[in-house]
Input
Amino acid sequence: MAGISGALISIVLVHGGFVDGSGWEGVHQILTKDGYSVTVVQNPTKSLAEDVAFTKRVLDAQKSPVILVGHSYGGVVITESGTHPNVAGLVYITAFAPDKGESVNSLIANPAPGAPVPPILPPQDGYLALDKARFAASFAADVSKAKAAFMADSQVPWGVDALNGTITAPAWKVKPSWYMVATDDKMIPVPAQRAMSKRAGSTVVEAAGSHAIYVSKPKEVAALIERAAKEVSANAAK
Output
């Protein structure tokens, strides 16, 4: 990778649970305008193994080093798939960054007193959904009312098997990482974000925003991704 420039880095974006890849549209527009090749993975979020397989197929197709970006549960996916040889760095956007043997379920098993409780409804046929009436407040409080309502109505069922999927070899142990803490997140507690990013040794930035900060503040999110791309390029050139 010696001598590569930031614009020769490819960006792969991985969405989280309850949503699909369309939420990355604003980030995608900025990155592509700035000259990056961007691919959005459309994971089915039925199981971690399947989502990792989908993501690795996208990584296989990349012709240049990749900054692999995950939001929320997408952080679990990039942690497991990010050991792929094409991945040069990881970016977590208010995301889970599990260690070996951990899963979403293990990370949320013992919330701290006073931590926000996501309005997840009881599973139906092995899938989870968020209470539509409480979706905006918990997931997308800083997104426009109309967009938050659409996100609530267009939810993607999140498989219980995906929450149970465990990490075998955390990519953040062998790849550089960056992490955006969303300080108004009501889905993943802010102290948990800070603890995971510290454990991973990530370069951390904090920004005021909801769990849907990738939708509400695409400029800030894109800026962190571009920073990661440029720092990976600079390090490769040394």
In short: The beta strands are 10-14, 37-41, 66-71, 87-93, 127-128, 158-159, 177-182, 203-207. The domain at 6-108+156-237 is CATH 3.40.50.1820 (Rossmann fold). The chain has one domain: 6-108+156-237.
